[in-house]
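re: that chain from earlier
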Amino acid sequence: MTQSVDQALTTSTQTQPIKKRTLKPLIMVLLLSLSPVVAAVLVYFNPEWRPEGNTNYGQLVEPQRPMPSAQELPLTSLDGQPFDIKSLKGQWLLVTADSGGCDDECAKKLFILRNTHAMNGKNVDRISRVWFVTDDKPIPQKVLDAYVGTVIVRADPATLARYLPVPLGQLETAEGLANNMWIIDPLGNLILQYPRETDPLELRKDIGKLLHSSRIG
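^ sequence. v structure.
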């Protein structure tokens, strides 16, 4: 009886067709692996297919503007001494420009830059804040006290506007400069520009990304 069962199983096995192996799974795996490479090559040779927009919040300054010399941009400290902006090379600079009278909008920009600086924790030593004062008005003592640590220098607005750009439609005057903020990299290149009403959180993100990815400054 047992022999009959074994013979029956053997016969059943022999009569079942042997399934052929297929290469389809291997081909699918290869195609999935190669698809990112193929996509990258296609995008490389077809620039119009590239996604628009930048990962940064600020507007890129193009072409980048190198830091001017003391002769090109004469500056004076609050005590009347000449100041060379190139002395700050090697630092990331958070920059604003405004009247010495410093109204509420001016104080708001200084507040944003101070907090952006402070929120970078261990990287605070890599950043400096600069306020270009565009007139001869005295700076209120309460402003000086509130923003200790800011590099404050006086500059002629017309000369300053040759270096610090203002968006199209804005005049290259003290008022136009007051509507913006900027970031200068440690090599002295003006790289990003922000409107006066910029989102403080987005500005912090931008400087944080720069500090994280940069090996300079």
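Confidence is low (pLDDT under 50) at residues 50-54.
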